[in-house]
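Ribonuclease: structure tokens wanted.
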Amino acid sequence: MTIRRSYLSGLFPQLVFLSFLALLTSTANAVDKIKCDIAVHDANQQLETDNNKTINDEASLVKLLRTLNKDDVLPVQYVTTDYAKKQGWSGNSQDSLWKVWVLNKKEIGGDSVQIPEQKSGEKWYSADLESVRGLRSAKRLIYSPQRQERYLSTNENTSRVIIKACI
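Answer:
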């Protein structure tokens, strides 16, 4: 009993120190980031300044960004174009995904895209935003698991604005 107590008492200060160090590191990383609702609003303002369409549902984009930041994967309502086609969708953006029963309430996301800012070895993907009843819109989130910055496009990735790294 004496041996166990002395071992644990020697271990306790080390655990406290490591916990403090982890907290300090995560706080330092968080200082560089802004809240996602502010980052999305700023990007939407930039779209408006550039005379591009803006997104209507900032809250949904904020939720999507937070999911990507936490999990590095899209939520379950997203499916790739290839998956949708295998399930029976025509691939034509004029046709609703929702006409195919297994694609009801789904959106296109996770398809690979190329962007000029892409560095060697980076992979970038897109996710549809503001789809209506299974019909694709021209609005996309462009993201990479290797970067915290994301891009917002409202014209099928013809032009885009940056969404700053956010929490």
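The longest strand covers residues 107-113. Residues 20-30 have pLDDT under 50 and may be disordered.

Cheers.
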